[in-house]
Amino acid sequence: MANLFPIITIKSSKPGPEGLIIAGVHGDEYEPILAVRQLINELKGKIGKGSLTLVPVVNKGAFLAGSRLGLDGLDLARTCPGKKVGSITEQVAHEISKLIRKADFLIDMHTGGNLFEISPLSGYMMHPNSEVLDTQRAMAEAFNLPIIWGTSPDLEGRTLSVARDENVPAIYTEYRGGGYYPDGIGDLVDGCKNVLAYFGMFPSVKGDSKVTLKIEDNQPGSGHLQEMYPAPEEGVFVVTVELGQEVRQNEVLGYLCDFYGEKKIEVHTLQAGRIFLIRAVPMAKKGDALAGILSAGNSNYYEKIG
């Protein structure tokens, strides 16, 4: 089978880990794609040991359509491990899952795409294997984004669920969204280099820690962004909070109005915590996520830093 997506592998002459860095699982998430492109150019001949496979655009069809979803209407991040014979997204999921199973670690980079803006974070599943979990925690710390977030391992269909099943340490990142922010590319490039440094494959570029919050939440379904604060009905959503804002319980997140601007439904916070996700567009269908809060009340570990 011809490659369904571009694959670049950089090898060292010395034995070591086989790393995998991917972007473009969703076609409307641009900064990670350009970060991987930059890594390809900067890391050639500079990997100290092992090998590194980079996939700048996993979901080419979705990228060319400027869409989160593939040309068959499927979300690649809900389709893994996919099918060898199936629709285009199922085939892509099958091929990227094969790469994940061969890797010794995975970094999967995302943004909020067209619909959401998300505070920069490194996330991982709360893996039942303590050795894998500790490695994931260290990878997230090394990536050096402001938020570190561990969530339930029960979500399926994702690249990280494939890695989970194979005991491959894996993290994902989220970085803004709701537009294109090229200033963030450097943070993603440096983060990947720092993870490579953790595995002894590249010199560290970390510098001072940027981490301001560490949180782990092992409740079932935690980490499913698209289910947070679902819209009670369709309408125009006007957000009244800002990314990174600390809120108390029962504060107003925003309100929904009808298309004439006459009807108003206030959406209130259900817990105190930090706003880390907001809807970046006013369009909201019933059930669409409107916002997300990281809260000590939902977590088994919660630490503010600085």
From TrEMBL:
UniProt cofactor(s): Zn(2+)
UniProt keyword annotations, A-Z: Hydrolase, Metal-binding, Zinc
Pfam family, one: AstE_AspA_cat
Entry-linked InterPro entries: AstE_AspA_cat, N-alpha-Ac-DABA-like, N-alpha-Ac-DABA_deacetylase
Keyword NAD appears in the UniProt entry: no
Succinylglutamate desuccinylase/Aspartoacylase catalytic domain location: 16-179
Listed PANTHER family: BLL3975 PROTEIN
Official protein name in the record: Succinylglutamate desuccinylase
